[in-house]
Amino acid sequence: MRLLHVLAVAMSLCVVTHALAQQGGTLTLYSGRSKTLVEPLIQQFEEASGVDVQVRFGPDAQHIATLQEEGAASPADVFWANTAGALAAASNAGLLTKLPQDVLDKPAAFVPSSGLWTPVTTRFRVLAFNTRAVKESDLPESVLDLPKLTQLKGRIGWTPTYSSFQDFITAMRIEHGDAKAKEWLRAMQALEPKAYPSNPPMIEALAAGEVDVVLTNHYYIIRWRAAHEAQKDTVQAYHFAPDDVGNLALVTGAGVLRRGGQNPAAMRFVEFLLSKQAQEFAAERGHEYPVVPGATLPDRLMPLDAALKLGPDLDLERLRELEGTLTLLREVGLQ
Amino acid sequence: MTPAGSSPDGARGGLSAAWKWGAIPAAAVVSGVFAPILYLVLRAAEADPSEVLQFVFRPRHFWLLWNTLVLSVGVLVVGALIATPLAWLTTRSDLPGKPILTVLAVLPLAIPGYVMAYALLALTGPTGVVAQFTGLVIPRPSGYTGALIALSLYLYPYLFLNLQAALRAADPSIEESARALGCNAWGAFFRVTLPQLRPAMQSASLMVLLHVLSDFGVVSLMRYETFSYALYLLTTTSFDRVYSSWVALIMLAMAAAILVAEARLLRGLRVHRTARGTPRSGQMAELGFWWGPIWAALVVLAMVAVVLPVVAITYWTTQGPLSEWRELLRALGASLQASIPAAVLAPVLALPLVYVSVRQPSRVSRFMERIAYFGYATPPLAFGLAVTFFAIGFEQLLARLGIKQGATPWLYQTLLMLVLAYTIHFMAEAVGPIRAALYQAPPRLSESARALGYGPMASFLRVTLPLIRPGLLAAVALVFLSAMKELPLTLMLAPNDFQTLAMGVWDKTREALFAEAAPFALLIVAVSFCFVVVLLTAERPQVAAAPGPAAAPEREAATPPAEGDGDASLGLAPAS
Fold first, then answer.
1. With an 8 Å Cβ cutoff, are B491 and A58 in contact?
2. How does pLDDT run across A76-93, given as a tens digit for each residue?
């Protein structure tokens, strides 16, 4: 019984504090981005705007399913997604409202033709190499030529079950066709790459000399280098030539949901995400690249205009065509 | 054992009362369980009929079916091979250190399956912790073997707990009669003791099978494709609710098949004593010099199942900056807030259902009890979406009827909704131990109480309840432990700005921040450890029951009250 009392008091306290916090309006945010990376930013917005932000963290797919189930009764105003594929699915399902042109004009790249969501930050696929074992000049212009480096047999690391790797294969299928993607996977397999369950142990293995090059995301390298100041130059990032599919941009973004169309705080929040403050925070905290020009970047990131030219020019919404990729990976025995 | 026969006389009035008391929980459970199924059927009906057949019967599904079956059977066999000797050793042998052993045997329950799997992956392989420290490369478990090892280590405590409780409650005089009639020790064990363990074994096996069927954390980390993994891939890759509903329905059909099979095996089973008098504890088998090797084997088991995962999490904790302790404490509070009410509510709702189905077995009552398992077998994603669907409908109904003003929801995305979802989902965890306890509580005792003039409720409270107390406690513990670890439902249904420990682990590991995730995982394990220890100490009188002819103290509570020894406070006692 005592427990029930405590619960009752706790719950009524929640209701009261909730009511008190509503002065600047409230905003319900469904975030596919992790709490760890974005919570301080949300607090900054709350302080600056007086808006009480209610957040739900969860995987993108769960939010989309929930939003569809909630329908018109959805309490959510903004969907902030971890992948462009999820935003594409949300706009396909008619969950998003169109953003005003002045918002869409802010990002320098990756704005979808639908105008239903805006990119917020981006990460890049990248090749990391051990500087003691490999010379940068020996590395190929295109990821498609990576299998030609037969001297790297048994010295390549990858993460075939990791979602960013799968996005990369999807992009390869879109750019070069299924047959070419399959051929590339087979050729890579001939070099007997080592498969890792996730990126951080793979980078460790790279630094330890277990492999010489690995296919990864750019921020894992930065994180490792930040944690290993003394030996940080052992591991370096290599970007393929601009527009190569090996540099695929992994874009995060946000859209205003139908209910949010009536809530002024929703648009304020999306504009805040594109503000200099928020863009610089993402670079500082998550080592992600801003999409709006003018942000000051830490030294460990490359200049923004160069970075934004790296990725291949493809319709990012097509990254939701993951099913074919999984079938392909299954066919070659990687899934 | 008596053969199946007509139900004992004298309890009829009590049974109809039980039906009355059972009606409310039954209605709650049935609607809670059927809502998701109804939801799935509604969604599935949106599919194009011509494509459905093709989709449901595609070759890949037969392959998944095979994978799922092989894994389920494997886990059951390995789990039973670990649990049965452990249960026997801790109840029927003179092995030293039995209380410690019992705790060690139950502890894997405190370790979430995904932590177990991740620890196995992190420890092994050329880059693993073991290789780094000793140079010894243990092949990294993956696929079938990996999933089998991780799931068996994680699930055998279900079998162990049930078997141990059953062995403790089993009446040794039946065994002794068998021995007196010329059976040797092994014969008595296989022909008398094991059959007595059947209800316990079966309800535990049910949990294990249903768990393997719905497990996602372990099979995804081990990359072994079962139906639940396929369901996950389907929802994340195509964001498709219609065809994922079909996969969920296939999984439910498998669960239904398992449930029907188990119910058939249980029909007509009665294993309680029918004789007069009080059962006593059995003789302890003397292990002699065998206790050394047995302990050595058990230490190895404990190392792999408990110590290594805990060491792995602790190691990660020391590798990074300790997460902010306030965030940790808040998450702990959130976990407890959601888990404790569910751990109390689920057994309370399960008790009447199980009571009716054990004491008045009929098609309807058995069906009601089985129903509880469906909640467990429904894939969490489908379950969560169904709760969303109906809770939203409920809010809209309230608003339309003018009962509710304003947009603040009463149920949707509240703590209450999460607790109710846990309760329905984990009720099956409560059914098993309660059922096993009730099967072994002789109805003759409560009948005597009735004959002596107690009302049905009073005889239940005074006689049956004390008898099944260990089963009830086990039920509370199992639901609590499961709720503490639960992730997919929590992610979907928790209130906004509500982060449990499991959500904390998830949030950090998805950013590959293992060091920052570790304290959250460590706290789940620590709280669960404490809970397991407290629980087992609460049951201590039984564990410590001295061998010999003296009646165990628990049993004394079960003797019917003497005439006139009425409980006036209940107002149900007869005037003498």
1. yes
2. 999 999 988 889 889 988
Nearest to A7 among B233, B337, B508 (CB): B337
Closest listed residue to residue B311, CA positions, set B10, B16, B525, B566: B525
pLDDT of residue B495: 95
Give the type of residue at B38. L
pTM: 0.83
Per-residue confidence (pLDDT) for residue B326, from 0 to 100: 86
- Please answer whether residues B175 and B193 qualify as being in contact, where contact means their C-beta atoms are separated by less than 8 angstroms: yes
Tokens of A315: 């319709």
Compute the residue count for chain A: 335
State the average pLDDT over residues B211-234. Answer: 84
Chain B: residue whose CA lies nearest to A334: B223
Strands A78-81 and A249-257: antiparallel
Q: What is the ipTM of this complex?
A: 0.82
Q: How far apart are CA B573 and CA B558, in angstroms?
A: 17
Higher pLDDT, B416 or B162: B416
**Closest to B527 in 3D by CA, of B346, B344, B329, B376:** B329
Q: How far apart are CA B153 and CA B307, in angstroms?
A: 12
Cβ-contact B141, B120 below 8 angstroms:
yes
For residue A18, the chain B residues in CB contact (below 8 A) are 408
CA distance B433 to A239: 59
Between strands A235-238 and A26-31, the pairing is unpaired
**Secondary structure string (H, E, C) spanning B65-112:** HHHHHHHHHHHHHHHHHHHHHHHHHHHHECCCCHHHHHHHHHHHHHCC
**A202-234: b (≥16 Cβ within 10 Å) or e:** bbbbbbeebbbbbbbbbbbbbbbbeeeeeebeb
Coil/strand/helix, residue B129: helix
Whether A233 contacts A216, CB under 8 Å: no
Which residues is A214 bridged to in the sheet? A128, A157
Alpha-carbon distance of A51 to A260, in angstroms, equals 14
With contact defined as beta carbons under 8 Å apart, do B504 and B511 qualify? no
Rounded to an integer, the average pLDDT of B76-103 is 87
Closest CA to B500 of B485, B515, B510: B485
Q: Are A24 and A52 in contact (CB under 8 A)?
A: yes
- For residue B441, the distance in angstroms to the closest alpha carbon of chain A comes to 28
For the cut 70, the answer to whether the pLDDT of residue B561 exceeds it is no
Tally of CB atoms within 10 A around B329: 11
Q: What is the pLDDT of residues B178-191, one digit of tens each?
A: 777 777 777 777 77
Among B63, B224, B236, B397, pick the best mutation site for testing chain A contact (most A Cβ within 10 A). B236
* The pairing of beta strand A96-97 with beta strand A118-130: unpaired
CB B271 within 8 A of CB B1: yes
CA distances from B548 to A183, B144, B278 (A): 75, 46, 13
Instruction: Name the residue type at position B121.
Output: L
Tell me: pLDDT of B20 over 80. no
pLDDT at position B33: 83
Chain A interface includes B510 (CB < 8 A): yes
Which amino acid would we find at residue A24? G
For A50, left (φ over 0), alpha (ψ -120 to 50), or beta?
Answer: left
The tokens of B555 are what?
A: 């049993």
Helices and strands (H, E) in chain B, number of each type: 28, 0
Residue B8 — pLDDT band, cuts 50, 70, 90? Answer: very low
- Tokens standing for residue A16: 């009261």
Q: Are the C-beta atoms of A164 and A121 separated by less than 8 Å?
A: no
pLDDT in the model for residue B94: 82
